[in-house]
Design goal:
Layout: H1 3-17, H2 26-34, E1 39-42, H3 49-59, E2 63-67, H4 71-83, E3 91-94, H5 100-111, E4 117-120, H6 122-125, H7 128-135, E5 139-144, H8 164-171, E6 176-180, H9 185-194, E7 201-204, E8 212-218, H10 222-231, E9 237-241, H11 245-257, E10 262-265, H12 271-282, E11 288-291, E12 304-309, H13 316-323, E13 333-339, H14 341-351, H15 356-374, H16 379-386, H17 401-404, E14 409-411, H18 413-425, H19 432-440, H20 445-449, H21 466-479, E15 482-485, E16 491-494, H22 496-503, E17 509-511, H23 521-531, H24 536-553, H25 557-560, H26 563-572, H27 577-580, H28 588-608, H29 628-637, H30 642-649, H31 653-665, H32 673-679, H33 682-694, H34 700-706, H35 713-728
Parallel strand pairs: 1-6, 1-7, 2-4, 2-5, 3-4, 5-6, 8-13, 9-11, 9-12, 10-11, 12-13
Antiparallel strand pairs: 14-17, 15-16
Helix pairs in contact: 2-3, 14-15, 18-19, 19-21, 24-26, 24-28, 30-31, 31-35, 33-35
C-alpha cells in the first residue's frame, strides 16, 4: 500500500474515530473495500470489525447498506456513529420498530445524500417497497454483519440470510463485505459460496484471546457459586447467560436480594425496558446483566470483566462469541461456565420436531460443546482447533483451568491404536458414539444390524467405559490423528498422521478427563453434603454450650437448637445473627431468642483458629412465592381444622403437619391448641408435655415407646409442635 494511501486512511481514522493507528489488519481490509473488491473478514469479538465497514462508508460516495440481525444491535451501532459526527442523519436504521413518519424521514435523508450508513434487518430488505426505493439511490457497498447467520452450519442460522445475494443483485452491483466473529472452516466456505463471493479477499485473524481465562465447573450449588464469584469482584462489570427467560428472572432477583446491582434482559421484556436495561449497563448504572442470548451481540462495552454461563450454550460458536464479550479492552476477562449433562438433554429436546438434517447439525454442534466441557486438555487449544487454528498449549500461560491445574497423564499408545483400528475396521463410516459402543461391547440395534457384535473388536476395550473412549477420540482429534467429515454429520476419518501412527506406534500420553456423567440433581445434593464435613472441635463446643444453657433455663437441649442445626453451624461458621438465620432449622425468632451466645462462641473460635470460612457471605434466598407457609399460618389463626387446610392444598394431613413442624422449628410461634383440644383431653396433653420437658431427645419413637403405644404418631407430633412452640420460640 502506498504511503499516501496509508496517510489518508489514518487521517480519516483520526478525524472520525480519534485513533492514531489501526488495529491488526483493519487498514488492509478497509483499503480492500475502497478498492471495490469483495471482502470476507473473520475477526474475533473485540477485534474491531465494525470499523472495517464504518470508515469506508464514511469515506465513500453514496450509502452503505449494513445487514444486521438484531434491532438492539442496530440502535447501538447507529448511536455510536452519530457520536463521531456532528449530524444525526449520517446513520439510520430501517426495521419494524419505526413508525411510518420515521420511515419517511429515513428515506428523505438517504435521498438527500446525507446518510452514509443504513442498517437494515434482512426481513426489511426483502420487502418489495424497500428494494424499489434502494434501487433508486446510490449504494457504496453491502456489508453483512454476523455473516455466520447465512450458514446452516453456523450457530445462529437464519433462513432469510440465504436470500441476501439475490436481493443485492436486484438493488445494485456493488462489492460485498461479510464479517463474522465465529466461523469454522466449513461455515466460512458455506458463507462465501452462498454469497457468490468465492473470489473475495479473505482476512482471517487469530481466534486466540490471550487475556481471557476459561473455566468450567460442575453444576453444583450454582447460585451460591455465582454470588461468591461476583462478590469477590466488587464493582466489576459482568454478564450472566441463562437458557430460559424464567431462569434469567430468578437469577437477577437472587442477585438483587444479595446486594448485587443487577438487571434482567430477555426478549419477553417490553422493548423500552430492554433498551433501558442495556443503556444502564453501558452507562455503568448496573454492574451485572442476567440475560438470554438476546443480549450482547455487538454491544461495545470494553470493560466487561466476567461472563458466566449458568447453562452451557448449544454450540462452541455461541460459547466463543458470548465469552468474547469479556475483556475487549485487553484487560482481565474471566469466562466461567457451569456444566451438567442435564443441560445438554434439555437442548436436545429443543431439536425435536425440526427437520432431520437440522437435528443432525444441532446434535453435532452439541457434541462439540460436550467435548469442550468435559475435556482435560488446554481449553484454549481445544477452541482454536475447532476453528481450524493450531495452538501450542504451552503458550496458554495457565489461562485456563486445565492448564492451571493439570490432570493426571498416562500412557495411551495401546488405546489410541485400538481406537484407530476400530475406525479403520468400520471403513470410516461411523460417528464417535458407534465406535465407543463397539469398543466397550455394548450391543446396540445398529451394531447388531452390521453384525459387528460378532467381530474380534467387539468389547476389546471393555475394561474402560464409554467416557474413557470418548476422551481418547477427543484427544486424537485435537492431535490430528482423526478428523470429522462434516457433510456426513460427524463421521470419523483417519488423517495421514493417524495412518503414520498405525504403521509406527509411538508413545502417546493421554490426559485423565473430567467425568460429569453422574451429575444429576440427587447426586449433586449427596455430593455436596458429603463434601461438607462439620468441624468436630467446634461441634463439641456448641454441644457443651447448648447443655449449659439448657441447665440454666431448665429446658431440654433440643428445644434450644437441634443437632442438625449445630452440625450446620460447625460447617458454615455463622458469626452474627443474620448469618445464623441461614442455618438449617433456625428462623429469625429462634436466632433472636437463643442465638447470641452461639454466634459469639463461633466468632471467637474463627478468629482464634484463623478459620478461612467456606461461606464468608450470606446467600439470601428469594422468598418462596408459593405462599404455602403463609397460607397455613393464616388458616391456623382462623382456627381452621388441619384436615380442611390439607384438603384446600391437595395434600395429606401428614404433609401439613410436616410443614407446621418446619415453621415452628425455624422459630415461628404457632397456636394449635384449638385442634389438639379436640383430639386429646387435658390430662393426656399434660402427660405428653411433661414427657418432652424431661426427655433427652425429641424422638417420636422414644415417646411412642415410653407411652406403650397409648398415643398415635400424629397426636405425639402435634404435642411436640405445641411444646416446641411454647418453649423454643
Amino acid at each position: 500500500m502506498a504511503i499516501e494511501e496509508q496517510t489518508a486512511l489514518t487521517s480519516y481514522l483520526k478525524k472520525y474515530f480519534g485513533f492514531d493507528q489501526f488495529k491488526g489488519e483493519q487498514e488492509d481490509i478497509i483499503q480492500n473495500v475502497l478498492d471495490g473488491k469483495n471482502t470476507f473478514v473473520i475477526m474475533p469479538t473485540g477485534g474491531g470489525k465494525s470499523l472495517c465497514y464504518q470508515l469506508p462508508a464514511l469515506m465513500s460516495d453514496g450509502t452503505a447498506i449494513i445487514v444486521s440481525p438484531l434491532i438492539a444491535l442496530m440502535k447501538n451501532q447507529v448511536d455510536a456513529i452519530r457520536h463521531v459526527s456532528d449530524r444525526d442523519d449520517i446513520a439510520h436504521f430501517l426495521n419494524s420498530s419505526l413508525t411510518k413518519t420515521e420511515i419517511k424521514q429515513v428515506k428523505d435523508d438517504i435521498q438527500s445524500g446525507h446518510t452514509k450508513l443504513l442498517y437494515v434487518a434482512p426481513e426489511s430488505l426483502t420487502k418489495q417497497e424497500n428494494i424499489e426505493f434502494l434501487t433508486g439511490v446510490e449504494i457504496s457497498f453491502f456489508a453483512i454483519d454476523e455473516a455466520h447467520c447465512i450458514s446452516e452450519w453456523g450457530h445462529d442460522f437464519r433462513p432469510e440470510y440465504r436470500r441476501l445475494r439475490e436481493i443485492f443483485e436486484k438493488i445494485s452491483n456493488v462489492p460485498i463485505i461479510a464479517l463474522t466473529a465465529t466461523a469454522t472452516p466449513k461455515v466460512q466456505h458455506d458463507i462465501q459460496k452462498n454469497l457468490n463471493m468465492l473470489d473475495a479477499t479473505v482476512f482471517k485473524m487469530s481466534f486466540n484471546r490471550d487475556n481471557l481465562f476459561y473455566e468450567v465447573r460442575p453444576k453444583r450449588d450454582v447460585e451460591k457459586g455465582i454470588i461468591k464469584f461476583i462478590k469477590e469482584r466488587p464493582g466489576k462489570s459482568g454478564i450472566i447467560y441463562c437458557l430460559s427467560r424464567k431462569k434469567v428472572e430468578e437469577i437477577a432477583e437472587l442477585l438483587q436480594v444479595n446486594g448485587i446491582n443487577s438487571l434482567p434482559y430477555h426478549a419477553g421484556l417490553e422493548s423500552t425496558v430492554r433498551a433501558k436495561h442495556q443503556d444502564m449497563f453501558l452507562m455503568e448504572e448496573v454492574d451485572v446483566i442476567v440475560a438470554t442470548i438476546a443480549f450482547g451481540m455487538g454491544i461495545d462495552k470494553p470493560d466487561v470483566r466476567f461472563v458466566i454461563h449458568h447453562d452451557i450454550p448449544k454450540s462452541l460458536e455461541s460459547y466463543y462469541q458470548e465469552t468474547g464479550r469479556a475483556g475487549r479492552d485487553g484487560g482481565e476477562g474471566h469466562c466461567l461456565t457451569f456444566y451438567s449433562y442435564k443441560d445438554i438433554e434439555k437442548l436436545e429436546k429443543f431439536l425435536h420436531g425440526k427437520p432431520i438434517s437440522e437435528q443432525e447439525v444441532g446434535r453435532q454442534l452439541l457434541y462439540e460443546t460436550v467435548s469442550y466441557a468435559e475435556t482435560s486438555i488446554c481449553r484454549r487449544k481445544y477452541i482454536l482447533h475447532y476453528f481450524g487454528e493450531q495452538f501450542d498449549e504451552h503458550e496458554c500461560s495457565e489461562m485456563c483451568d486445565n492448564c492451571k491445574d493439570p490432570r493426571e497423564k498416562f500412557e495411551g499408545k495401546d488405546d489410541v491404536m485400538l481406537l484407530l483400528e476400530t475406525v479403520d475396521f468400520v471403513k470410516e463410516t461411523q460417528k464417535a458414539n458407534y465406535v465407543c459402543n463397539l469398543i466397550i461391547g455394548k450391543e446396540t440395534a445398529e451394531i447388531k444390524s452390521y453384525k459387528h457384535n460378532e467381530t474380534d473388536l467387539y468389547g476389546k476395550g471393555k475394561d474402560q467405559d464409554f467416557n474413557h473412549w470418548n476422551a481418547v477420540i477427543r484427544q486424537c482429534l485435537v492431535r490430528g490423528f482423526l478428523f470429522k467429515e462434516i457433510e456426513s454429520y460427524g463421521t470419523l476419518k483417519i488423517s495421514n498422521e493417524g495412518r503414520d501412527f498405525m504403521k509406527n506406534p509411538t508413545s502417546f500420553m493421554l490426559l485423565k478427563e473430567h467425568d460429569y456423567s453422574s451429575d444429576n440433581d440427587e447426586n449433586i445434593v449427596v455430593a455436596q453434603k458429603g463434601a461438607d464435613s462439620a468441624d468436630e472441635v467446634l461441634y463439641k463446643m456448641l454441644l457443651d454450650l447448648r447443655k449449659k444453657i439448657s441447665k440454666d433455663k431448665s429446658i431440654p437441649p433440643f428445644v434450644i437448637f437441634q443437632e442438625p442445626s449445630l452440625q450446620d453451624m460447625a460447617i458454615q461458621y455463622p458469626i452474627n445473627l443474620e448469618e445464623l438465620t441461614n442455618i438449617q432449622g433456625v428462623g429469625q425468632g429462634k436466632a433472636t431468642r437463643y442465638g447470641k451466645p452461639f454466634v459469639e462462641l463461633i466468632a471467637r473460635y474463627v478468629e482464634e483458629n484463623d478459620i478461612d470460612r467456606y461461606q464468608d457471605f450470606v446467600v439470601k434466598s428469594v422468598v418462596n412465592k408459593s405462599g404455602l407457609k403463609v397460607h397455613i399460618i393464616q388458616n391456623i389463626d382462623r382456627k381452621m381444622p388441619l384436615e380442611a387446610i390439607a384438603d384446600s392444598q391437595g395434600k395429606a394431613i401428614a404433609e401439613v403437619i410436616g410443614e407446621i413442624e418446619a415453621i415452628v422449628s425455624s422459630g415461628t410461634k404457632i397456636n394449635i391448641d384449638y385442634y389438639i383440644n379436640d383430639i386429646l383431653d387435658e390430662d393426656d396433653q399434660e402427660d405428653i408435655y411433661d414427657y418432652f420437658l424431661e426427655a433427652e431427645s425429641d424422638s417420636l419413637e422414644d415417646a411412642h415407646e415410653e407411652f406403650d403405644g397409648q398415643y398415635d404418631e400424629d397426636q405425639l407430633r402435634l404435642m411436640r409442635i405445641k411444646f416446641m412452640s411454647d418453649m423454643a420460640n
